């Protein structure tokens, strides 16, 4: 039989075939396709042109095939069942054949759900096997599907199909392959092979059924481009089997691309040894430049036969061919009948020079950046300008051990045991300008081992608010901070007697009940400034019965656009930097000692300014360049928009280990995948409900996000706006996690406090007699909300006001010291 | 049963915007069983509409009634009397009820109160799943009683696609791959060879792609 | 500014009488049910129709519900009512559920007060 195509000829003559994949562009730019074709010309026997792969709209396969032919590469067009019914498919295939296309790969196609038009109606009039059968009968029997005669020229395709040796049920995979071959498939391209052992088994079964005699099987090969891509394929692409060994090699490799190519070459060499493997199909996704290198190193270059591609239609070449840019095969390998060489036109040369020049430019920028970082490092290490990230001096607690009558040890049964159970601690926070108000907050940390029989009225643990000047000023004031006389934070005073002392005489197990599990530890950021949250097995600050490996942390919030409605009492701290995110970030870190930053991309909200992903990227890039503390990037909360924005942002902060979010049920798949690709932790936001929070964690886990990459955002309510509700939901979540073995909830909390507090009406009302001072009120509202939520289990807080942060941290610090 | 879901109330409000007196009409058939359009849901819908309109300063009067079925002309008869009292009807029945009212009572303005979603089974308390698509040419005899038309995202007829992994569909991890289930079912019965048979392309006319479908049972029809 | 709130409760959550509600500076619509599981979404919405700014649904603590899961069902109904309130442009926080100890009027009245505070906030916002 006369071969139906060049690819067919290569295979039928017994050569080990090489095909590659060309993904058409998401535009009408034919030059993209031509360029990709030129890149691989001479290195492959044919090139597959995908048909809107992963259901994303791209230039059509058939039209791209014609462009590819014009470059002298033989195309294999792909036809999916997703977008056309039997009428459309037959019509398009007649057309393709008339245009000179000789190879056809019949596939069902990725479901539209995964693409950029998930709303589309999927056609699926036929499945891939029915499609093969239909085309075979058009070709061999001259019949349309309906049975009518096809008179005149028939579509003489060399027919191919796909096979996935790694999908389930495994035993059925070979049978399905047999069905495809029986329906008409003459060559098979398989899913990407990383697990060579499993593929070997598949081939063995195929051989046993005699399939390798009936069809040519080409193994799918993909060089991983990065560790992130390998991981993405492992966890997110259904039907792909990536062994841990591959991940490990990619992770450890210094030059990821080099290692990717090595891996591909090794796999080619291994599959080549398997009997029945007739060739390889290289899918270098968005990395066509890798193909020549792989083919060369695998010893498959030069190709044995030269393709004679004669497009039925000659496509005019608009731009002169830029031969210079192409990694062209060595001259001696250019086939004798190569098309006449085009003289190098001046335009092309100019373009080359400008490319080189811009590369030098960016190199220079890189060097400058390095200089800057070096200088910063030097300053940080050798003094000069000390970055007060960690406050060097913190107000100390004055612990006076009050003398009490010694407690006699008595048997537990004794009812009238000591009255000392009453007071756990006494604390005083002194504050200026909050006058004879009732205690604004009560830091009650009462621990009652037994129901108190009597109350001792004279001892009340409370934060007293006095009119005195604070005794100690926190060190953050050293810097010439902006108008800061508004609120000053005092220190704790009072005494604390450890529970062990107070409970002396009682058996420990009577009052100690640590949880049965630990909250997972999530690492925020990377490098020196990174920290962990979580890692506790007790209710917050119950240090007497268990451990809290990490104290609750605070991230300072900055916005991507200048905020419009911040009360003056808050805005004045940042007045000079509000319209420059980078300066803002620097101020937070350098002046206010922020240990982490949260960039809230409010401007991208479609209901607000609707700024695009590029804007977000720029802002995040600037901030990332300005500071080295861990980052949290918080999208607008619009599920769809956030996917677009955070994907872009993830690229920038990928190696910073930044936290991204909020991830909701609506976008958990896509954002989960993005986060996994870069190994980033995510904020899982659910609307203040135990079960919804848990469900989202489960969903994220299902798509492959590990629980120790999740921070739960329970959607909090500020003081006066549902704080109690939040508290109770968080408490219930934490109890379930620690005491009811609910492992899906053993995840730290992140609480977005600042935003909720500062949008409350009360935070912005002017100072008056009833409401008191505006700033004091706002600061207290924010600090109380955070502290209350810390008591409910909050692990990471996003806050705005420097003073509120100071107060919160002070209280947390004190609570952490008591044990 | 036919499964339905309450329409967003905003949409219903938009539909009845011009009217002051509206009848909310439930159905005791499928939609009552799937808790979308029975007595309770009628009460809820009516109360929600009234409340919204009251807040908007344009109070609404509602009537509430639930018929035994809305897909049979004889049960719709009372509407003839009620029609004068109301300016519009919000039907909480499936789309069949809305259509039949519109067919029989051209003078009545009828609007849907639910979205009709699928033919499904009540698989757990508060949970319904699609099991049939009414494609008019049942092939369940060949697939162990499990339907690849209704339950496979790509309507495949010749076995699972490459996205089937661990018995799960690639569409959503909580959805089982029906072809995997069919494979296991037939495998347990020793009938795997059934799957080796080529399943030809389906004729979609009985599924509704040949225009609206009807059914005639001659022995029941009365000649006029 | 007269403020009305609604209280739909299981009969066993309290023994509050007329005088208990006198401390609330507004109108309290009280409806008692043999079990909170009996309270329907429509009942909640109707209470709003009657002019309530906020509604409290009170049932017994989960483990002490006489009908085993009555109060848990009621909590879900409240979720359903919240969803509808949101759809028609009202704040979902206007309706809340409280699990209460049996026949203890104290905690019950505290919840009533909280509900009143919510009503107050809602009224002042609108």
Counting copies of identical and different chains, the oligomeric state is heterotrimer
In order across it, which strands form the biggest sheet of chain A? 1-2-3-4-5-6-7-8
Radius of gyration of chain C: 13 Å
Structural domains of chain C: how many: 1
Task: Please report the total strand number of chain C as a whole number.
Answer: 4
Average pLDDT value of chain C? 93
Terminal CA distance of chain A reads 87 Å
Chain pair forming the biggest interface: A-B, 39 and 30 residues
| Structural class determined from secondary elements of chain A | alpha/beta
Helix/strand order of chain C, N-terminal first:
EHEHEHEH
- Determine the fraction of residues in helical runs of chain A and give it as a percent range: 25-40%
Average of per-residue pLDDT values of chain A: 84
Gross geometry of chain C: globular
Strand fraction of chain A equals: 5-15%
Strand order of the largest sheet of chain C: 2-1-3-4
InterPro entries (chain A): Ac-CoA_synth_d_su_TIM-brl, Dihydropteroate_synth-like_sf, FAD-linked_oxidoreductase-like, Mehydrof_redctse-like
Family (chain A): Belongs to the methylenetetrahydrofolate reductase family.
Protein name (chain A): Methylenetetrahydrofolate reductase
Cofactor (chain A): FAD
List keywords for this structure.
heterotrimer; B: about 220 residues; Rossmann fold; 2 domains; 4-stranded parallel sheet; 3-stranded antiparallel sheet; C: about 130 residues; alpha/beta; about 40% helix; globular
Describe the protein.
The complex is a heterotrimer of chains A (819), B (224) and C (126). Chain A is an alpha/beta fold. In chain A, 37% of the residues lie in helices and 11% in strands. In chain A, the strands form four sheets. An eight-stranded parallel beta barrel of chain A has the order 1-2-3-4-5-6-7-8, surrounded by six helices. In chain A, strand 4 (103-107), helix 5 and strand 5 (158-163) form a beta-alpha-beta unit. Chain A is elongated and about 100 Å long. Mean pLDDT of chain A is 84; it is low at 320-342 and 386-484. In chain B, helix 6 (95-104) links the parallel strand 4 and strand 5 (110-112). Chain B is elongated, with a radius of gyration of 22 Å. Chain C is an alpha/beta fold. Chain C has helices at residues 18-21, 41-49, 70-87, 105-125; strands spanning 4-10, 27-33, 54-60, 95-100. In chain C, helix 2 crosses helix 3 (70-87). The longest helix of chain C has 21 residues, at 105-125. Chain A binds chain B through residues 81-82, 86, 108-111, 113-114, 122, 124-130, 133-134, 145, 162-164, 167-169, 172, 175-176, 178-179, 182-183, 191, 238-239, 699, 702-703, and chain B through 153-167, 170-171, 173-174, 177, 180, 183-184, 195-196, 198-201, 204. Chain A: It catalyses: (6S)-5-methyl-5,6,7,8-tetrahydrofolate + NAD(+) = (6R)-5,10-methylene-5,6,7,8-tetrahydrofolate + NADH + H(+). Chain A: One of its GO terms (molecular function) is methylenetetrahydrofolate reductase (NADH) activity. Chain A: Pathway: One-carbon metabolism; tetrahydrofolate interconversion; Amino-acid biosynthesis; L-methionine biosynthesis via de novo pathway. Chain A: Residues 401-493 are annotated as: Disordered. Chain A: Its cofactor is FAD.
């Amino acid at each position: 039989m006369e071969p139906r195509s060049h690819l067919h000829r290569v295979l039928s003559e017994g050569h080990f075939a090489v095909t590659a994949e060309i993904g058409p562009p998401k535009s009408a730019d034919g030059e993209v396709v031509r360029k990709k074709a030129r890149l691989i010309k001479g290195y492959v026997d044919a090139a597959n042109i995908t048909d809107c792969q992963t259901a994303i709209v791209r230039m059509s396969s058939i039209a791209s095939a014609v462009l590819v032919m014009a470059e002298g590469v033989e195309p294999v067009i792909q036809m999916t069942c997703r977008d056309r019914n039997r009428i459309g498919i037959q019509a398009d295939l007649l057309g393709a054949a008339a245009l000179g296309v000789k190879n056809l790969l019949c596939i069902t196609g990725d479901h539209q759900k995964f693409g950029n038009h998930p709303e589309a109606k999927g056609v699926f009039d036929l499945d891939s096997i029915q499609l093969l059968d239909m085309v075979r009968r058009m070709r061999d029997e001259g019949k349309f599907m309906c049975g009518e005669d096809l008179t005149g020229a028939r579509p003489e395709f060399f027919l191919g199909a796909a096979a996935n040796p790694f999908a389930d049920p495994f035993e059925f995979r070979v049978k399905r392959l047999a069905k495809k071959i029986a329906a008409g498939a003459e060559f098979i391209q398989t899913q990407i092979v990383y697990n060579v052992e499993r593929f070997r088994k598949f081939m063995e079964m195929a051989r046993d059924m005699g399939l390798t005699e009936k069809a040519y099987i080409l193994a799918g090969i993909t060089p991983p481009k990065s560790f992130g891509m390998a991981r993405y394929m492992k966890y997110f692409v259904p039907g792909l089997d990536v062994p841990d060994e591959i991940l490990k090699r990619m992770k450890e490799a210094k030059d990821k691309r080099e290692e990717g190519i090595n891996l591909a070459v090794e796999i080619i060499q291994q599959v080549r040894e398997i009997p029945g493997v007739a060739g390889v199909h290289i899918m270098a996704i968005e990395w066509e430049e890798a193909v020549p290198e792989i083919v060369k190193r695998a010893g498959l270059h030069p190709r044995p036969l030269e393709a004679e591609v004669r497009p039925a239609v000659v496509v005019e070449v608009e731009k002169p061919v830029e031969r210079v840019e192409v990694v062209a095969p060595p001259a001696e390998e250019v086939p004798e009948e190569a098309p006449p060489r085009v003289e190098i036109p001046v335009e092309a040369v100019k373009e080359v020079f400008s490319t080189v020049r811009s590369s030098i430019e960016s190199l220079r920028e890189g060097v400058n950046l390095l200089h800057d970082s070096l200088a910063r490092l030097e300053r940080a290490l050798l003094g000069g300008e000390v970055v007060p990230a960690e406050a060097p001096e913190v107000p100390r607690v004055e612990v006076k051990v009050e003398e009490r009558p010694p407690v006699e040890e008595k048997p537990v049964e004794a009812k009238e045991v000591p009255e000392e159970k009453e007071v756990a601690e006494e604390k005083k926070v002194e504050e200026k300008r909050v006058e004879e108000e009732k205690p604004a907050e009560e830091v009650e940390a009462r621990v009652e081992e037994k129901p108190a029989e009597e109350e001792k009225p004279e001892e009340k643990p409370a934060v007293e608010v006095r009119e005195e000047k604070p005794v100690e000023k926190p060190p953050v004031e050293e810097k010439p901070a902006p108008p800061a006389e508004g609120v000053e934070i005092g220190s704790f005073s009072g005494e604390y007697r450890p529970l062990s002392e107070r409970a002396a005489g009682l058996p420990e197990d009577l009052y100690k009940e640590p949880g049965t599990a630990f909250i997972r530890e999530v690492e925020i950021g990377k490098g020196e400034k990174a920290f962990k949250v979580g890692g506790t097995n007790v209710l917050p600050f119950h240090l007497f019965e268990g451990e809290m490996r990490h104290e609750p942390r605070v991230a300072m919030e900055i916005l991507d656009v200048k905020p419009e409605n911040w009360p003056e009492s808050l805005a004045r701290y940042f007045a000079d930097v509000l319209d420059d995110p980078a300066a803002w970030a620097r101020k937070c870190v350098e002046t206010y000692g922020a240990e982490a930053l949260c960039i809230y991309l409010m401007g991208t909200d479609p209901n607000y300014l609707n700024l695009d992903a590029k804007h977000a990227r720029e802002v995040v890039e600037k901030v990332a360049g300005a500071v080295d503390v861990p980052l949290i990037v918080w999208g607008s909360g619009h599920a769809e928009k956030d996917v677009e924005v955070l994907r872009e942002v993830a690229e920038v902060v990928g190696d910073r280990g930044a936290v991204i979010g909020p991830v909701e049920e609506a976008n958990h798949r896509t954002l989960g995948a993005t986060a996994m690709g870069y190994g980033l932790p995510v904020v899982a936001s659910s609307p203040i409900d135990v079960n919804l929070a848990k469900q989202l964690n489960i969903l994220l886990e299902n798509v492959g996000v590990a629980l120790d990459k999740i921070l739960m955002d329970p959607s909090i309510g500020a003081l006066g706006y549902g704080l109690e509700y939040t508290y109770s939901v968080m408490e219930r979540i934490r109890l379930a996690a620690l005491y009811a073995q609910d492992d899906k909830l053993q995840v730290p909390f992140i609480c977005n406090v600042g935003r909720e507090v500062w949008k409350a009406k009360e935070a912005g009302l002017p100072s008056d007699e009833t409401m008191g001072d505006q700033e004091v009120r706002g600061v207290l509202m924010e600090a109380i909300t955070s502290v209350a939520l810390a008591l409910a289990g909050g692990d990471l807080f996003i806050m705005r006001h420097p003073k509120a942060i100071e107060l919160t941290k002070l209280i947390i610090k004190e609570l952490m010291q008591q044990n | 049963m036919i499964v339905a879901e309450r329409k967003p109330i905003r949409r219903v409000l938009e539909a009845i915007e011009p009217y002051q007196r509206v009848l909310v009409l439930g159905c005791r058939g499928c939609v009552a069983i799937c808790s979308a359009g029975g007595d309770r849901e009628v009460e809820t819908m009516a109360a929600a509409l009234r409340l919204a309109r009251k807040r908007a300063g344009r109070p609404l009067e509602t009537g509430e009634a639930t018929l035994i079925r809305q897909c049979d002309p004889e049960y719709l008869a009372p509407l003839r009397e009620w029609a004068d009292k109301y300016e519009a009807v919000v039907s909480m029945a499936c789309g069949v009820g809305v259509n039949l009212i519109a067919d029989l009572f051209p003078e009545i303005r009828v609007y849907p109160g639910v979205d009709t979603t699928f033919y499904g089974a009540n698989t757990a308390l508060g949970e319904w799943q699609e099991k049939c698509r009414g494609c008019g040419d049942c092939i369940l005899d060949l697939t162990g009683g499990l339907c690849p038309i209704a339950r496979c995202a790509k309507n495949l007829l010749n076995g699972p696609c490459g996205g089937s992994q661990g018995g799960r569909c690639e569409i959503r991890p909580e959805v089982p791959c029906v072809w995997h289930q069919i494979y296991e079912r037939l495998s347990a019965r020793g009938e795997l060879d059934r799957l080796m048979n080529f399943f030809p392309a389906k004729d979609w006319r009985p599924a509704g792609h040949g225009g609206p479908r009807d059914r005639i049972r001659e022995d029941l029809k009365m000649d006029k | 500014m007269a403020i009305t709130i609604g209280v739909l409760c299981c009969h066993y959550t309290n023994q509050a009488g007329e005088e208990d509600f006198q401390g609330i500076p507004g109108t309290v619509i009280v409806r008692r049910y043999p079990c909170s599981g009996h309270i329907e979404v429509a009942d909640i919405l109707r209470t709003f129709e009657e002019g309530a700014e906020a509604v409290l649904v009170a049932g017994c603590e989960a483990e002490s519900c006489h009908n085993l899961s009555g109060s848990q069902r009621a909590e879900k109904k409240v979720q359903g009512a919240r969803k509808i309130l949101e759809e028609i442009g009202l704040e979902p926080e206007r309706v809340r559920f409280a699990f209460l100890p049996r026949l203890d009027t104290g905690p019950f009245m505290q919840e009533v007060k909280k509900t009143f505070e919510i009503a107050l906030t809602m009224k002042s916002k609108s």
